[in-house]
Amino acid sequence: MGTHLINYYKNDNKFNIEKLITDYQPYIYRVIKNFTNYLSNEDIEEIIEDVFLVVWHNQEKLNNTSPIEPYLIGVTKNIIKNKFRKICINENVDDYEYTFIDPIDIDFLVEQKEKNRIISLALNQMKKDDKKIFVLFYFYHKNTKEIATELNLSNTNIKIKLHRIRKRIQLKLIEGGYSYGG
Amino acid sequence: MEDNNLKEHIIENIAMSEFGKEYIMKEKKCIFKLNFNYKKVAVLTFCICFIITGAIYSKTLIENFTHKEVIYPQSISNAINNGYIEDLNMEYIYSDEIGLKINSLLLSDDVLNFELDFKLTKNISLQSNKFAYGYIIYNENNEIYYFENFTGNNSINEFIKENNLIQNNYINYENITFKTFTDSNIVTNHLYCAQKPLPQSKKLYIKVIGIGFLSSEGKYNSLSNSNWTIELSIPDKFYSSEGIEYKLQDETKEISIEKFLVTDTGTLFTASVPTYLSPSDICLIDESGNNYNISFSISYNRNESNQIIITTNFPINKKMLTDKLYLKFNLNSEEKIYELKKK
Fold first, then answer.
1. pTM of this prediction?
2. Would the CB atoms of A163 and B33 count as touching at under 8 Å?
3. What mean pLDDT do residues B103-129 have?
4. Contact A25 B167 (CB under 8 A)
């Protein structure tokens, strides 16, 4: 696979993260393994998840005409470094003939992952269908009519379910120490 | 983890992050990470907290108390103080030695509020349990206002199917406050705020199916599987009340108002906006310069053009209106003020 530019993964200004995950998940795995042998498979999977979360979070800041790989490598490096500050990581720069970009801010990850952990608790207690509705709405950005068609339910039913899903997650976040407000 | 599972996990995480944009969270604890290590728990937490106890479904342990105050948004308390409430003075209806009545009712285009009064003659332990029940509210046209079932069984859903009740998505916000909690008497205040105008009804039915308690582990313990149905005739002052609609003085590409309705108890607002807004990004301003932040929360949806649709409520009612009214938005860190005019 050749190096793609960032705009290859943009359709009408929407970032096609799914395609990016499919294309680059194995590549990032190899990058991590090349950086260090001190990580378990569990840690590696966690880093891969974080990489794509960071890319998604920063999608609007990306330069469309830049190649995607150096950006992914830069993000991966920073996440590994943050994960193990005291571990000396040998970077074989020669393997990568790209220009490393400036490190991006990944500090949001700490807070985001804590919130996601709590939201995940709520989601895991829900029925599979409710979880599917959540993902269809918040990841695929489908409206309630589209979700209703896909799941063969009424639009009203989907709206009610979405309302209750949000409420349950909100309660979990409040229990976890987060209150709703501006 | 397999590749497909990992991809699914990443997608879920992104979905959760997107959800997070809808709700700006105030952290109660400041977390300082000394060592960024996911495996070891190395977090030092400083707690300087003001805990806001909204008593949502009162899931915390409840001690005996009587006549706890219900906190209403300004527009609802103003309406109540001006007589926009009906005290019902009804007798208890009994089933399985448990009595139920409704103490008061308030109904407008955007708010439904009533108090359930339970008289308990059976022996109950209050130290470790939480009062729970299933209930449904519907009108003479079989339109459901709201329903909830804390009993964990299917009784409410079965009732809906058997009676061909029509599900609607009227409610944007709901809250139950326990006003009184003793061995023999429990009073709950139910408050619902709408996201679209509530139907005009001549009769309202409030049905309770099943009463019990939740243990500290969240398990439901039944006190009674019986049911109670109360039929209410809607007073004319509620039935014939009408709201005032507003629109933007000048059209703009950024905001498109679908509904701005000022009622006897508050304001319903639905609009398409260019970006997710937090509660602090939007408020109403009257002619005297008074700011009205949103009453509770913002609901988000998307229309067929994939635009973000927000629905919320403001605590300003018909009696509180001034000649001029303005909407203030914080859009992409830029403050924008739009004048409103009556339709």
1. 0.72
2. no
3. 83
4. no
